[in-house]
Amino acid sequence: MKKTIIATLLAVATISVQGQVKYRLEGNIGQNYTGTMYIRNQSGTNNEIVDSVEVVNGNITAHNGSCAKPFLGHLGTKNFSLQMAPLFIDNGVIRIDMQNGAPAIGTPLNNDWTSLYRELVKAVSDYRSKRISEADAKAAMDKSITPMLKAHSNDPLGYFIVTQFNDAISARRGLEYIAMLSSDLQRNDMVKRIKADLEKRATTEPGAKFVDFAVEYNGKTTRLSDYVGRGQYVLADFWASWCGPCRQEIPNIKAAYSKYKDRGLQVIGIAAWDEPQATLKAIAEEQIEYPQIINSQKIATDIYGISGIPEIILFAPDGTIVARGLRGQAIGKMLAEIFDKNE
């Protein structure tokens, strides 16, 4: 009986400690806004509102709050018209300083995230300014992410790192990041979904052979292998009519098709998550001439582990995946390296 009472008291004491996360939120959001902003809990999938603060001319009216345990938070207006960078609700004074580019500082989780954020921004900036190569940028990012993830393997920062940067280096490295998390976080529904996508992406990364699929539409079956692995480079655009960024990439893809179609390049569109009539309407509006695989819905994206579009993949003549995630000028640059190198 004594052991039971002692165990019960210890359990109650533990709950009491966990329920004593007290925080104070203050600072400036970097925009001239007056009104109420809401703190949402992003650690799960429901994104629930858990607290609110008042803002006057961009300055947060200092607000004290409490919660059961630290969590990944988001500060924004109710309709998401104004959103701040992620912050961590943690013990202590949390100061948002967007005027100076600091997402949030003042508590252990926020200080570590801001430190990591600045290191990642530097690596990306060095790559964009051509001071370092893409490979060196990824190595620098990995060097920053790995120790931070190990230090936060069982808290909201570790969860955030995995959910946001799981594919920054490669799908295989993303799976290794997930393996660094505690068993509890690995059982999180979002983490499990990301892991499933990464496992599919890992088999379809650059260097791997293409994975075929078949789509039926209007009584006809079309396969990826109708185009890929037949002796030509193939640029495949996974897109949808309703996707703004997808529509923005179409002029770049059309330009590539026009320039290289007579020199060994095939271009195909793969309409995903879209109604066929909407796809056909968009094809007419954009005056797309290259062939399309219509009505793929989730078939193609599931196979290639695609969770967001557009996703533009380049296949070599033998069907090997050359590159994924091509966007904007990177499309023309990649194709120029292939087709113009001998001129």
Q: Would you summarize the structure shown here?
A:
Helices cover 40% and strands 26% of the residues. With 343 residues, it is an alpha+beta fold.
Write the layout of secondary structure elements.
Layout lengths: L1 H17 L2 E8 L6 E7 L7 E8 L2 E9 L3 E6 L10 E3 L2 E6 L4 E4 L2 H21 L5 H18 L4 H10 L5 H10 L2 H4 L2 H14 L11 E4 L2 E4 L9 E7 L4 H17 L4 E8 L3 H11 L5 E6 L1 H5 L7 E5 L5 E3 L5 H11 L4
Parallel strand pairs: 1-7, 11-12, 12-13
Antiparallel strand pairs: 1-4, 2-3, 2-5, 3-4, 5-6, 7-8, 9-10, 11-14, 14-15
Helix pairs in contact: 2-3, 3-4, 5-7, 8-11
Molecular structure report:
The protein is an alpha+beta fold and 343 residues long. The chain folds into three domains: 19-106, Immunoglobulin-like (Sandwich), CATH 2.60.40; 111-202, no CATH class; 214-339, 3-Layer(aba) Sandwich (Glutaredoxin), CATH 3.40.30. The chain has eleven helices and 15 strands. It has helices spanning 2-18, 108-128, 134-151, 156-165, 171-180, 183-186, 189-202, 244-260, 276-286, 299-303, 329-339, and strands at 21-28, 35-41, 49-56, 59-67, 71-76, 87-89, 92-97, 102-105, 214-217, 220-223, 233-239, 265-272, 292-297, 311-315, 321-323. The chain has an eight-stranded mixed β-sheet with strand order 6-5-2-3-4-1-7-8. It has a five-stranded mixed β-sheet with strand order 13-12-11-14-15. Strand 3 (49-56) and strand 4 form a beta hairpin. The longest helix is centred in the middle third of the chain and has 21 residues, at 108-128. Residues 1-18 have low confidence and may be disordered.
